[in-house]
Amino acid sequence: MSRQINQPSNQIKLTNVSLVRLKKNKKRFEIACYKNKVLEWRSGIETDLDNVLQIPNVFLNVSKGQTAPTAELAKAFGKDVPLNDIILEILNKGELQVGDKERAAQLERVHNEVISIVASKLVDPRTKRVYTTGMIEKALDMLSSQAHQEREAAASGAGSKEKSPAAPGTPASGENGEAKPRPAKEHVWTGVVTTKSAKSQALEAMKALIAHQPIPVSRARMRLRITCSTNVLKQKAPKSSSGAAKEDAEGEQKAPGTIKDVILGYVEQVENQDVLGSEWEVVGFVEPGAFKGLSNFIANETKGQGRVEVLDMAVTHED
């Protein structure tokens, strides 16, 4: 004989759910979403809200099925704000609640993406060859361990100073009682997090690797084609362009010279250059950090008669 199980008609069973929480006006509001759909929505892959929400409603507690009263929503989000707008605000700004396994998997995905981006953008400056992802990972681990050790040392040092302050007249650091100047803020790498995009974290990782050099690294150079009318090349460059001029043997800044001189000043290595009719063309390698200055100079000083074309974003050599 079969048994029938009666359940309350208003009970909604949520399965495979991800919660997004937003605290506003000292109240916590939640929405119930399908797993993996929140990140797809935020990255623009998913555009249909119905595919993201399990229930188009706002809750105080999803697990208990406790919906948010209209008065509470109005108090927190404003009067006459449509429910859909409130849901979108929670979805876009709220904190995604995930389990330990899902969080670990997400962290691993971001970690692998960061390592992959960094490995494709950095090279050994001597050979111009890329490093393996394993080498990049080890180098970043070294920086992360160093950063954590320095934090612990700083924390213990601060504690000892509070317990035993230096005697009056004792130099804090440096000689002759002069205070040692605080170093400029350096690029610090403490590891991958899930709250930032992989692209932005890869940029931070590259800056840290270049600043600290746990292994010899430099940004892979860009390969560009620069073309300009020969009529413009011989014109004198403005003094404001002196930043692009190279230093002479005695370390003094040379005058910017002509438009052509300034353009070539940005190019680290010329692959070839030629004059085709009334147009000069040069193909060469430029450090990524110089690309914006070069582009701005050509846009502002060639009167529309020059242009820059990117042939390769990152020139590397692979075994």
From TrEMBL:
Its main location: cytoplasm. Residues 16-103 form the Ribosome maturation protein SDO1/SBDS N-terminal domain. Pfam families: SBDS_C (PF20268), SBDS_domain_II (PF09377), SBDS_N (PF01172). Residues 253-313 form the Ribosome maturation protein SDO1/SBDS C-terminal domain. Residues 177-188 have a biased composition (Basic and acidic residues). The keyword Thylakoid does not apply. Associates with the 60S ribosomal subunit. Belongs to the SDO1/SBDS family. This is Uncharacterized protein. It comes from Phialemonium thermophilum. The lineage of its organism: Eukaryota, Fungi, Dikarya, Ascomycota, Pezizomycotina.
